[in-house]
Amino acid sequence: MTARPALDLVDAVASQLADPDMAFRRPRAASSYRQHLAYGPPGIALLHIERAAAGLGSWQRAHDWLAAASQKPLTSGPDSHPFYGMPAFAHALACAANHLPGSYHRALNTMDRQIEVDVARRLDAAYRRINAGRLPRLAEFDTIRGLTGYGAYLLRRNPGSSTTHAVLDYCVRLTEPITHHGETLPGWWTETGPSGSPDDRFPGGHANTGMAHGIGGVLALLALAARSGAFTDGHHAALRTILAWLDRWQQETGRGSAWPYWITRDELRTGRLAPSAPRRPSWCYGTAGLARAQQLAALALGDTGRQVDAENALVAALTDPDQLKATTDTGLCHGFAGLAHIAARTADDAHPSTVGRLRAVIPAFLTAVHPPVTDPDLAATALIQDEERGPGLLDGAVGRALALLASSTAAPPRPAWDTCLLIA
């Protein structure tokens, strides 16, 4: 797929989302999503920010969407999290400031102080839970709602701060085993199902491996921190603990390595994975996101062999007909846009022996997101007005457009919009 058809869809999405007042009349853009990075204005602002930074759009549109997100007081405290409220808005504002040095300095500093207060409160609760011998909730540590997501923001804003260091300390502690009712479990084991709620399908809970809600996100954060020079005691040991866990549950598909979405209590006790059909290799769950996290960890550890293995696993997943057949969406979170973007980010850091094969898979995924013969305006309208997915970042039109934009223009400056996904 050439750059022009992709950029035509990006332009069409941006044009139809030019006016926040008009866009908020559409599905999944109601006021309840005003502060949500995944569905609302903070995520939509990211598209206008990246287009303006690339010289393809106006900064006024980006400002209008930032203003729409902040026209009422932003939620902080216990009701906020990395994808909702002040932290979500701060991520978008920091992206704009990254391209406009000196801008938004006062607002970001004010929000950073509040975010640090909220993180300190969460850390205190987490350590009280650990010291009491209780298992964590997913929302305590995950990328979307928990301390790993906060760590992604803090690492970007102030990697040397005491708060960033405290979050990394917590991530290391999370990798230590915990004894619960006489059974030794990994420190990130949760008593619930993957939704975060009790689930009869998961008696005894589970260990989540995903980037969105599991230990994959923790691995990526620790790896990115190490690569940026932010270390804490036990940092490398924690990376190796998570990698050893993934090695333990690695599967061979006949084409390459893959990893499960989670481990159940029965699987832990027997040491064997239950039979299952091939699963999609997405960002949120599965081999694509985990391969990128393992590549980052290998780079942090200087382990070239593991790096190449992770990159080969990603190539295998992205060329496996059975895994691709299970991928039925074109969005960023668990669809072809996300696969294209992960492949591109992985290729940026890849070993010479794998970089060509990683780049070779990207065009097909971009074509799946936007076939060249498709009218861009009609495609944009269909995406934005989709009642289930709407215009947002994770599942909607903006996530697709950002993946297309990143693959069709010069490499974006880092840190960038996708730091919230912990793949860069």
Radius of gyration: 20 Å
Helix content: 40-55%
Main β-sheet, spatial strand arrangement = 1-2
Structural class of the secondary structure composition?
mainly alpha
- Shape annotation: globular
Average pLDDT reading: 94
Tell me the strand percentage band.
under 5%
Tell me the series of helices and strands, N- to C-terminal.
HHHHHHHHHEEEHHEEEHHHHHHHH
Tally the helices: what do you get?
19
Number of strands: 6
Separation of the first and last Cα atoms: 24 Å
Which ranges are low-confidence, i.e. pLDDT below 50, for 5 or more consecutive residues? none
Largest sheet: 2 strands, antiparallel
Keywords:
globular; 424 residues; two-stranded antiparallel sheet; 54% helix; mainly alpha; 6 strands
Structure description:
- The chain is 54% helix and 4% strand.
- With 424 residues, the chain is mainly alpha-helical.
- The protein has a two-stranded antiparallel sheet.
- A hairpin with a 4-residue loop joins β4 and β5 (257-258).
- α10 (215-227) runs antiparallel to α11.
- The longest helix has 27 residues, at 105-131.
